[in-house]
Amino acid sequence: MISLTELQDYMTKQLEEDRKVKSLRIEGENIEEALRQASIELGVPVKKLEYEVVEQGRKGTLGIGKKNWVLLVYEMVQEAAAPGFDEIGMDELEFAGDFAPGEDKPGIVFVKLTHDGAFLKVTPPVGHGARASERDALQRVALRGVNQYDAKTVAKVVKRAEGEYIKIGDFDFNPNNQATLSVETAEQEMKAYINVTQPGPGGPDLTKEEIISLLQSNGVIFGIKEEDIDNFIDYPQYNTQVLAAEGRKVVDGEDAHIVYNFTIDHSHIELKEKNGRVDFKEQNLIENVEAGQLLAKKVVLQQGEPGSTVTGGSLPANPGKDIELELGKNVKLSDDGLTVIAVINGQVLVTGGKINVEPVYTVEGDVNMHTGNILFLGTVIVKGSVGSGFTVKAAGNIEVMGSVGRSILDAEGDIIVHQGIMGKNEGRVKAGINVVAKFIEHARIEAEENVVVSDGIIHSVVDANMRILCQGKRASIVGGKLRAGEEINAKVLGSVAGTETILEVGFDPKSKERLMELFKTKEEIENELQEVELNINTITNLQKVQRKISEEKAKSLEDLNNKRAEMLTELEEIAKEINSINEYLSGLKIKGKVSASGKVFPGVKIFIKNEHLIVRNEFNKVTFILQGKEVRMTKYEPVEEGIAGSE
Known about the structure:
Mean pLDDT: 84
Shape: elongated
Largest sheet: 22 strands, mixed
Low-confidence stretches: 79-101
Number of strands: 45
Structural class: alpha/beta
Radius of gyration: 50 Å
Helix content: 10-25%
Number of helices: 8
Strand content: 25-35%
């Protein structure tokens, strides 16, 4: 074993050697760069250099906050072998350049004294941190008054730096100077603190096992913070309260609750912008849902987790409260009983805590700024009128008890207006089945089946795939353009003033309209094609004369030829569609007829399929039909019973 006097002599010699060492303060972007620069300036190989980190560098972000490393570099001294160090030299302790990534940390030396002897622990460096040296270890051993140690073991512990306590020798044990520990609980036994006194010369440190045993003997049996105790062993804080155990807080259970997949609070209206302006008509007050749609889901209650004090006392948790999923009309529960599903299309509502899907949406008054536009996946009933500028769309029927102004009505079923439709040349009504109204003025009407009016149709555009019927005491059709697949029937057609009134029957109105669109598009393309071909001919003739044209004109000619090819292809497609529609219309078995139970005035133009007749005289109670290729007049044929539906 080494005596204390021999150890002191060794340390003194090392200090004297240190004073002779050439040293240099140097900067670099990293440790390797700084060491290379120091090697040049000192004339010493890098592996023969030792250093200390004066200022730690950092990379910064995009060059901001960058800071160089500052090192104190000096030539490594061949240490005089300490007593017992014959077998291990400093060459074996050179620092390795291949460190793990992360924050740079130096190796650290720890000395611990226990009843079993003196123990040494050396941690490895992190990143480019400096290794702990044998000198550091011997200094720490000397400071703790250890004079009976195995030098070879110390050297091995330093070299290996495995971060574990290894016994290196013994010390003169003094039981009067050993550390003492007290335990104190606080915060209603939710925390326990230890307070340790510093050991004197020859006094052993407390071990982790001793600390835990003392905690347990003081009743602390739960939540002991073993990692914090490990840290205390290496970095003791004497005469200070150190948290050593912490209880587990109670986690109360969560109440069951319902997550709705729709808006249940419409008190806050989110308005949309249209063309940069807030559209006050789009208020989205109706929450539409479809059959099979998931409406709400129940989140089950949570029981919670009990807590515990550090002394093992139990702290019970309060369980969450349960709630019931209450079902209203037209909804059902999923198989697990946790999800509400819509059975039909309609409006979802929560009434009295119950989820309902209503197939009918009722507006108690007018459709105006208070209601906004209406879009509903069911039937809409308006007990008032639909104001100008508003839209009502429904997947079912629309029934308006009042009138309809310059508005848009669109339904997949019937549209029934108990009063009149006054479109002011902008109103549009479209029904998937029938349109029924008291009168129609200056409006655009479309129906997949019939349009039935009791008073009259004035200066409107009306299309019906089956019939347009105007049956009542004042049932007149005056002005406008009306098209029906099978029949147009009214009391009066035209007016005494000779107002132009166009009536077309015997074909599918939509197909006929598409045909007109195709003819218009065809004419526009043909006119544009003439201009393109003229430009092509101009450049082609120029090319014949000059033999060579500019790149710009060549590119223009290529573009014109490509455009010409596209237009010819489009004309070919249009011709095919026109032929297809004509074949369809000519194959229709609909005869078509126009009837007036009262008068027909001059100015009325009647078209049946591809033939037409301009009425130049006044007639009474007549029906116009197609015979061969001529529109002829015959005895009035009344509307078949059950079709008119007049008021």
